[in-house]
Amino acid sequence: MATAAEHVIDVIFGRWRSQILAAGTELGVYDRLDRAAPRRAPELAAELGLDPTLLYRLLRAQAAIGLLAEDAAGGFVLTESGDLLRAGHPQSLAAMARLEEGPQHYALWKHLPAMVADGRQNAFLREFGHMAFDHTRADGDYAERFDQAMSSYSGAQAAQVLGALQGTDISDVRVFCDVAGGQGYMACALLEAYPHLSGIVLDLPDVVADPEALWAYRLGLEGRCRYVGGDMFKEVPQADAYGLKMILHDWNDEECVAILETIRRGAAGPARVFIMEHIVPGPETPHFAKLFDVHMMCWGSGQERTEAEYAELLRRAGWRMVAGHAAPGAVMGVIEGACD
What is the pTM of this model? Predict the structure, then answer.
């Protein structure tokens, strides 16, 4: 077991590991390696236009943190972990690394002490002068990183949501609306898991404008899923149930209540809402949600919340809390609400 000092030192240097990992995604290193045939730094450097000596040192460090394996001749292969950083891997985490360790998000963290001192969150405003969503329109590099990372996150998140909902009866739901659902990954995962459902994906008009980018068309589900351009603060389509995956954590309490009130007004009658988020557990439980909450402090005006805090948001917006759902070991959960 590590001593207290060893634990603190490990945390201090944690950013070194994530930056060493991310450098490989930026330089395209992982995409030039595989699990079987070792490749040496000079050969890779020639292909990628890099310095062979410094590349070798980077590869050696990536091997030290378990992403690569080095043989006695200086050849490198991907480990199982490193394989997940190939852009072509079906569960690739490369885009996630490029966003979270990229220059825009990296710049936010230096503002953390000042935000805690003066009580004003949102390091995007401090660093760039506008909100994160506005920055996707102002900075093409950030827009690309953000869009690709959301797709990278979606696979793992959808699996956790489906796991959380196992055993939950949704046989009475015919039309499910994914609010601010992007390109529809979550909606399509639900349609595949529940064949009786039809889906609606609501997002801003420019998000849903290109059919080639939308998951329903990619998966052949366009007959059961339609896309609607709109603003969740103003109006949502009629449906029996609504999903909010990683949406409410972007906004402050008043904004969350406004979103939930809009959904309540748009419901076709009695309806259900499924809030899919990192749910903050009690003080006895270390949890990723408590770290993600500090990221949200930097990223914008939102936060991660406890089950009780989501129940209060539902109550204020005219819903009632039904249940909290979570799959064993998952970092995401689902808060279910209903209205009559």
Answer: 0.92
